[in-house]
């Protein structure tokens, strides 16, 4: 049996910076506005961030000196329109934030979409695939906690007892996810421990 979890960010990745108006370090989030400057067919595009305590703004560069022919017209249009999904999309772009030397603060919430594929093999094992189409600040551990509704301690115990296999605690805790897909195995009991999903009928048909 295979389960695929596709994980995408919800909300903004906050960034921390000393706010000159507040005079201390504050969190900044996108204001929702995009600024586009065009000069001789070269584009400079910023997402305007705001201090969460005052209105002090900070420009985060999305594209610098980009020739207008190099940007997809659809993306250019969305940026010109201050499209909310596009602002959100870039706000979780870790590589872009790194280029801006932005210090990450906390992490965005995530949405997990679950897909099942049942196969004819018997047994107690479920192969779990976690897909992260676009990397953002998240650990596999927090995905497991959210989706299995188990505490970090319970997940640790299940790794120790072999109920979750093919992944180490170190890998689960890392927030520097490189591969876009991770696969490991867990017992059905682990998958169902806290969740109320009844698949008995379909399982009888297929196993
Ligand atoms: Zn401020």
Structure keywords:
alpha+beta; five-stranded antiparallel β-sheet; 207 residues; 28% helix; disordered C terminus; binds zinc ion; single chain
Q: What does it look like?
A:
The protein is of the alpha+beta class. It has two domains: 2-9 and 108-206, no CATH class; 12-105, no CATH class. The chain is built from eight helices and ten strands. It has helices spanning 73-80, 84-91, 94-99, 140-148, 152-160, 169-173, 188-192, 200-206; strands at 2-10, 14-19, 24-39, 42-51, 57-67, 103-105, 109-117, 125-131, 164-165, 181-187. The longest helix has 9 residues, at 140-148. The structure holds zinc ion.
List the helices and strands and how they pair.
Layout: E1 2-10, E2 14-19, E3 24-39, E4 42-51, E5 57-67, H1 73-80, H2 84-91, H3 94-99, E6 103-105, E7 109-117, E8 125-131, H4 140-148, H5 152-160, E9 164-165, H6 169-173, E10 181-187, H7 188-192, H8 200-206
Parallel strand pairs: 1-8
Antiparallel strand pairs: 1-7, 2-3, 2-6, 3-4, 4-5, 8-10, 9-10
This protein binds zinc ion.
Zinc ion binds at residues 19, 21-22, 26, 51, 53-54, 56.
What can be said about this structure in brief?
This protein has 207 residues and is an alpha+beta fold. The protein is 28% helix and 39% strand.
């Amino acid at each position: 049996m295979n389960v695929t979890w596709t994980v995408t960010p919800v909300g903004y990745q906050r960034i921390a910076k000393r706010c000159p108006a507040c005079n201390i370090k504050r969190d900044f989030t996108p204001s929702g506005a995009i600024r586009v400057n065009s000069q001789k067919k070269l584009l400079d595009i910023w997402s305007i961030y705001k201090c969460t305590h005052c209105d002090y703004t900070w420009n985060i560069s999305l594209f610098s000196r980009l020739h207008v022919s190099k940007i997809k017209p659809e993306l250019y249009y969305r940026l010109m329109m201050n499209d909310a999904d596009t602002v959100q999309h870039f706000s979780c772009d870790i590589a872009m934030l790194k280029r801006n030397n932005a210090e990450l603060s906390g992490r965005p919430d995530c949405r997990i979409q679950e897909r099942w594929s049942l196969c004819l093999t018997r047994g107690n094992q479920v192969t779990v695939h976690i897909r992260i189409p676009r990397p953002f600040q998240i650990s596999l551990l927090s995905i497991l906690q959210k989706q299995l509704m188990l505490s970090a301690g319970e997940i640790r115990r299940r790794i120790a007892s072999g109920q979750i296999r093919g992944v180490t605690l170190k890998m689960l805790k890392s927030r520097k996810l490189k591969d876009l897909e991770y696969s490991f195995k867990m017992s059905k009991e682990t998958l169902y421990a806290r969740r109320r999903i009844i698949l008995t009928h379909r399982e009888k048909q297929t196993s």
